[in-house]
Design brief:
This protein has 14 helices and 17 strands.
Length: 461
């Protein structure tokens, strides 16, 4: 622990004159490091649990990589994936036997149970069926968020989970990061008095928005989920977790303002590879993002050999949505979204979802009667109004989770899920389906408010 003046603090945390500090000056500032505390209930297991992955796309491979990194924890023994390229790739990576490779999720449940758990990373609209069937057959379940595009289906999965003896966890991975665990701990401590309000902002980052919610799988809300759930159910879950009180009402606002045909520049074409006259100056150019920068190319199912990727990427840009002009897609997801939640005991929370940022992160401020907490995904600044003291916490993911997404949360969740299954103890997880239902309802009601132009009550049943 160090007690430093402001100049020393800025130097210690790497902020230069051109950077933005978290907060303002104070008499004394203490800098501490956020460490990833291992689960106190963690035990070494005699043999790895076994799992079947339904959906070998991006998220399925994220959880699959945990099995590669920690083979003593979990082994992938089955896969269901209609895309032949992805099915073959996943099966090869994990050494899956031919008789445990399936085309559809339904095929998995036509054979006797052959694993401990099912990991459901299918598209959003295909969560309900496999979740119910997995619980019925006695599998433990790791369910990618959102639970379902339908609140009724969410409640039916919850009811099935309560009847089952199986463990079912929802992939709210932010709960398992060192940063958000510390933020939750600080907010729950009571050291700054009574919680007054929360202000939370998610910057999607403009290229990520174009990739996932203009060109990508979630560009049509009616066929997947509204963006408030598809992208931000993590954030609603964190807000509910921090508030530690039920949400009562919501008012929401937002629309699709920019990614529309009327904003297409003169000289633009249907596809970036079709001689678009403004492609070189467009920040959303598919040629720049995928072909030149090689960003987010996992969705294009290109060869792993870098020498073969260029021609394959160009071919995908000619045939898939990822090569289309962002102004000429059939997208409907809002590119800016603001919602206001009234929690119990008068705690007010605002949430902003913004596409037009140059960064991809979450920023949170929590105001208390005797102080304030500010966080930006890397630093947490705690200000005590009474003592004028400031404590800055620097986040660092547990070393072995550095290659895991969401600040270490992807693999943090997997570690806890393995422990919960091996010990048959759902209490080792915080992202249970019971805990996730209310934050999903917050999203569904926000979308109703946005569309109807009126405040909505948040109430189950």
């Amino acid at each position: 622990m160090q007690t430093l003046n402001r100049r020393s603090v800025l130097k210690a945390i790497g902020l230069t004159a051109g950077a933005t500090a978290v907060g303002t000056s104070a008499e004394a500032t203490t800098v501490k490091e956020i460490t990833f505390s291992p689960n106190p209930h963690y035990i070494s297991i005699a043999q790895p649990i076994t799992a079947i992955v339904l959906g070998a796309g991006n998220r399925g491979n994220v959880y699959g990589r945990y099995a590669v990194a920690y083979p003593n924890d979990i082994k992938m023994v089955g896969v269901a994936e209609p895309n032949e390229f992805r099915n073959e790739r996943f099966s090869k990576t994990h050494g899956i036997e031919a008789n445990h490779r399936f085309t559809t999720w339904e095929d998995v449940f036509k054979v006797p149970k052959f694993a401990d758990a099912i990991i459901i990373s299918t598209p959003d609209t295909l969560h309900y069926g496999p979740a119910l069937q997995a619980l019925k057959m006695g599998y433990h379940v790791l369910l990618e968020k959102p639970i379902s595009p339908s609140m009724q289906e969410c409640l039916e999965i919850l009811a099935a989970a309560k009847k089952s003896k199986s463990i079912i966890a929802v992939c709210h991975v932010l709960r398992y990061t060192a940063y958000f665990r510390k933020l939750k701990e600080l907010c729950a401590s009571g050291d700054l008095g009574e919680m007054i309000s929360i202000n939370h902002l998610e910057g999607i980052e403009h290229v990520h928005m174009a990739h996932s919610y203009v060109r990508g799988n979630w560009h049509e809300s009616k066929k997947t989920n509204p963006i408030i759930l598809a992208k931000s159910c993590h954030d609603l879950d964190i807000m509910r977790w921090i508030a530690n009180k039920p949400a009562k009402t919501v008012s929401a606002y937002g629309n699709l303002k920019w990614f529309k045909a009327e904003n297409a520049p003169a000289g633009s074409t249907e596809r970036c590879v079709e001689g678009c006259k403004v492609e070189r100056e467009c920040p959303f150019s598919a040629i720049k993002v995928y072909y030149e920068q090689k960003k987010r190319i996992h969705v294009l199912d290109v060869p792993e050999d870098p020498a073969l990727q260029g021609p394959a990427i160009l071919e995908r840009l000619k045939t898939s949505n990822y090569g289309r002009c962002v102004y000429k897609m059939n997208n409907d997801q809002p590119d800016h979204y603001t919602s206001i939640y009234q929690f119990d005991k008068g705690v007010l929370a605002t949430f902003g979802l913004e596409a037009f940022t140059g960064w991809e992160a979450r920023k949170t401020r929590v105001m208390f009667s005797m102080g304030e907490i500010e966080g930006d995904n890397d630093l947490i600044r705690v200000s005590d109004f009474r003592t004028k003291e400031v404590t800055i916490w620097k986040a660092s993911a547990q070393k072995e989770f550095n290659n895991s997404g969401h600040g270490g949360g992807d693999h943090g969740l997997m570690q806890n899920f393995v422990q919960a299954v091996s010990q048959n103890n759902p209490a080792l997880l915080t992202s249970t389906i019971e805990a996730s239902i209310e934050s999903h309802l917050m999203g569904f009601m926000a979308e109703e408010s946005r569309k109807n132009g009126r405040s909505m009550e948040i109430k189950i049943g």
